[in-house]
Amino acid sequence: MAESSDIRERLAMLCRSARKRTSIFTKKRPNKWSPTSICRPGSIEPFTEAGAWEFIACCLQAGVKIETIPLDKPPDKIGYVMLVPGNHGEDVYIKLEIVGEMVFGRSFHVSEKRSH
Q1: pLDDT digit string (tens) for 30-85?
Q2: Three-state DSSP class for 91?
Q3: Host domain of residue 102
Q4: What gap in Å lies between CA 1 and CA 4, rounded to an integer?
Q5: 43 assigned to some structural domain
Q6: pTM score, two decimals?
């Protein structure tokens, strides 16, 4: 399903607000969030937590393709997924979930699949 520009803008805004974003693991919302283990594209320096959120917001504003997927946990909720080129031919898999006025970081890791 294609995303609307409203969702893209909302996700970017939430990602840029330290009070409106979280990547805390819970049983209800498990995640694989490890930006500090990934080097920023074109750099040998790893992402910081804040840097990862800014990177996501920039990708959203740059028009990186977003796909919507149904989440297993919690059931009947929607995840927003991006596959972004990283270093050394690897892609970064990013998955977000909007919950009320918050964005939950569900995934930020090297993708197990390649898009190119």
Answers
A1: 999 999 999 999 889 999 999 999 999 999 999 999 999 999 999 999 999 999 99
A2: strand
A3: 5-110
A4: 10
A5: yes
A6: 0.91
